[in-house]
Sequence to fold (434 residues):
Amino acid sequence: MSKAIFWHRRDLRLEDNAGLLKACNCAEFVQPIFIFDTQILNELDKNDARVEFIHREIVRLSEEYASHNLHLRVEIGNPVEIIPVLAEEMQVDHVFTNRDYEPYALQRDKALYEILQSMGVGFTGAKDHVIFEKNEVMKGDGTPYTVFSPYARKWKERLQQHPITPHNSLENLTKVRGITSHSKIPSLSDIGFKPSGIAFPTTQVEDLLISKYSEQRNFPGKPGTSRLGVHLRFGTLSIRRLALRALKLNETYLNELIWREFYQMILFHFPYTVTSSFRPAYDAIQWEQNSEHFKRWCEGTTGYPLVDAGMRELNATGFMHNRVRMVTASFLTKHLLIDWRLGEGYFAKKLLDFELASNLGGWQWAAGGGCDAAPYFRVFNPTAQQEKFDAKFEYVKRWIPEFGTSAYPHPIIEHTFARNRVIERFKTALNKTA
Ligand SMILES: Cc1cc2nc3c(=O)[nH]c(=O)nc-3n(C[C@H](O)[C@H](O)[C@H](O)COP(=O)(O)OP(=O)(O)OC[C@H]3O[C@@H](n4cnc5c(N)ncnc54)[C@H](O)[C@@H]3O)c2cc1C
Fold:
């Protein structure tokens, strides 16, 4: 085979890129492309920080390609329409990419595969976004795990048999030549977007932070977590490189990376969880329709300081600490009894590191109907959580300047009332379907 397209999606890097290496090994001419997918972009606000992040990374990637005498071709539109046109224009034999396991991507790739096949052009994906994918970590009887601990044990066993080996894609770029001789990267406004004003986290994380992760990760006022979510989401950092560091430095950190793969695997095997609870019985819960309460939660004026600080951090930065994600999600679904789908949608819109699988996993865990969720009668007390994890009010005061003054609102709901109400409501729903 002599000519191929390599299509970047969630893998915006040259280094340790599985699909790119495959393309370089199979073709003499490799044309890298990226498409701003209008099927996705049309659904977003015009100041969405993720688009700005991707745009910035595409500019960087194209400069890196240019230093290897290759030109990243960037298009805007529907990939299922654009790629066949490019394949025809460049007379390629094959299109390579890295696999994406989300339902939209699977359906898009299937449609594209069929079109390319009818043109006599191959379409091959590689595993790049995760260490283990699809059916690689399964129970003895061949069914998927739905509980994290045994999944993680099996994941680690498999790692013993299949050690992580990064791909030398960058080194192999020198073997190939491009097809397009120049490139023009559209500006952010050409794509129809504008800057968000949000600062993006770096890919550089000290070994010390990872080695001290177990002790520091639960305190939102301290810089104790890596903030690498967005880089794993868009592949500006290789999961293999990060997992190798975790293996050396800290097992708790490695376990978090395994949670990420656990949720990817759950979404792949149970795609209905995009809109329904993993445990169907939980879809019988009668949720409150209270738009005022939902608004107060979104803007961070519930009168519960840890919840409000978290929502304000999210609104201002696109990030929220994991402990606070758990508390805010629990508060919305348990205290306010508002459907987890509304909260999941709000996080999906705001989180810089939004990852469908992890977001669904986190929300369904908090609402009780997810796989491996805590029992519904265990309801987080947001005040006790605050006392335990932000005892000196460092985090709360950072995000709520009026905290401690009369300008800060009273709680919109009383804790004991809310706790009794949710337990009763869940019990009724689950008894109905038992
Ligand atoms: C309601 C809720 C919604 C969430 N939504 C998302 C989401 O959209 N995208 C997302 O990446 N994570 C999500 N998480 C998981 C977790 O909160 C974030 O991954 C983490 O806070 C990101 O910060 P960090 O990069 O500093 O993580 P670190 O603590 O430094 O962890 C390193 C990496 O491990 C992975 N990770 C850590 N914890 C988890 C977890 N519980 N589940 C899955 N992966 C994890 C992430 O890729 C993370 O970047 C959600 C959790 C909850 C409770």
